[in-house]
Write a structure and sequence with these properties.
Shape: globular
Protein name: NADP-dependent oxidoreductase
Helix content: 10-25%
Keywords: NADP
Number of strands: 15
Order of helices and strands: EEEHEEEEHHEHEHEHEEEHEHE
Structural class: alpha/beta
Organism: Amycolatopsis acididurans
Radius of gyration: 19 Å
Number of domains: 2
CATH superfamily of the largest domain: Medium-chain alcohol dehydrogenases, catalytic domain
InterPro entries: ADH-like_N, ER, GroES-like_sf, NAD(P)-bd_dom_sf, Zinc-ADH_QOR/CCCR
Distance between the termini: 13 Å
CATH architecture of the largest domain: Alpha-Beta Complex
């Protein structure tokens, strides 16, 4: 079975085609014939060795996969049929990641793919939209409240903007000039210039500070000033503060939600309904994963880079 992975940590060049044994679905698991896998920043961290690994090499990255069910393990019968199009949120470990022709995952991490959506686009949304959902849930905001989003043109930030609007929230988002139209199309109510001074610009719009902020730009302490006393700052790379003024800092990790079947299914429905836009920046043959990683790490990608395993 073909996979894309690494036997030693390093730059994009360490990603190579691998031949691995074909996995078999065990109890409570399904096997997916993968046709597309998205490339996310967490994949580059796996490749670079910045995430701890308990398993021996080789390592196969990838958390977003789209394909068809081709094997159903004991105890996983009933929800799926062989050949059914699905998407999966994968928690990679060792050689078990989404960059492979076939993957075995817990059935609870798999939901039907959005109807009318091809595999490439279907592979682009689960990880980032679930992370966005966790961030919004951590804030506990009510309809009509204001949320601020940094990194709004990126995959996580864009999902926060769109899900927040679906929740009935007012959204203040950051953007550079070239991204303003994109961020407005995503649904942002007001846009401020991105950068280290974004907190000041948000305060100009909301003098008392916003009750919730999702920090997709990884500004951490530099964005605390934008949050109201007693508000919530959701972070995505583990930053925990301190923030002061009673502000709750809530690091969110998508790995805590890989088994949230109902939540994954809801996101798939929202993708189907157009609540979440499925933006593809570029598609690469799987063997060109190293180039996809180089482009992602260079920055400025709008939409997802996708590996084609078809």
């Amino acid at each position: 079975m073909k996979a894309i992975g690494l036997t030693e940590f390093g730059g994009p060049e360490v990603l190579k085609p691998l031949e691995l044994p074909e996995p078999q679905a065990g109890a409570g698991q399904v096997r997916i014939r993968v046709y597309a896998a998205a490339v996310n920043p967490t994949d580059t961290m796996t490749r670079a060795g910045t995430r701890s690994q308990q398993d021996p090499p080789p390592y196969v990255p990838g958390m977003d996969a789209a394909g068809v069910i081709d094997q159903i393990g004991p105890g996983a019968e009933g929800r799926f049929a062989p050949g059914e199009a699905v998407v999966a949120l994968v928690a990679p470990h060792g050689s078990h990641g989404a960059y492979a022709e076939r993957i075995v995952v817990p059935a609870e991490s798999v939901v039907p793919a959005p109807e009318g959506v091809d595999f490439v686009r279907a592979a682009t949304f689960l990880m980032n939209s679930m992370t966005a959902r966790l961030a919004l849930d951590a804030m506990g905001l009510s309809t009509g409240d204001t949320v601020a989003v940094t990194g709004a043109a990126g995959a996580f930030g864009a999902a926060v903007v769109q899900l927040a609007k679906a929740d009935g929230l007012r959204v203040i988002a950051d953007a550079k000039d070239s991204d303003r139209e994109l961020v407005r199309e995503l649904g942002a109510d007001e846009i401020v210039e991105r950068g280290d001074e974004v907190a000041v610009r948000i305060r100009e719009l909301v003098p008392g500070g916003v009750p919730g902020l999702a920090d997709g730009a990884l500004l951490n302490e530099r964005v605390v000033e934008a949050v109201a006393d007693g508000g919530t700052l959701a972070t995505v790379r583990g930053w925990q503060g301190p923030a002061g003024r009673g502000i709750r800092v809530r690091p969110v990790s998508v790995r805590t939600a890989v088994g949230d079947t109902a939540g994954l299914a809801r996101l798939a429905r929202q993708a189907e309904q157009g609540v979440l836009s499925l933006r593809v920046a570029k598609v690469f043959p799987a063997e060109q994963a190293a180039e996809a990683h180089r482009i992602l790490e260079a920055g400025g990608v709008r939409g997802r880079l996708v590996l084609d395993f078809g």
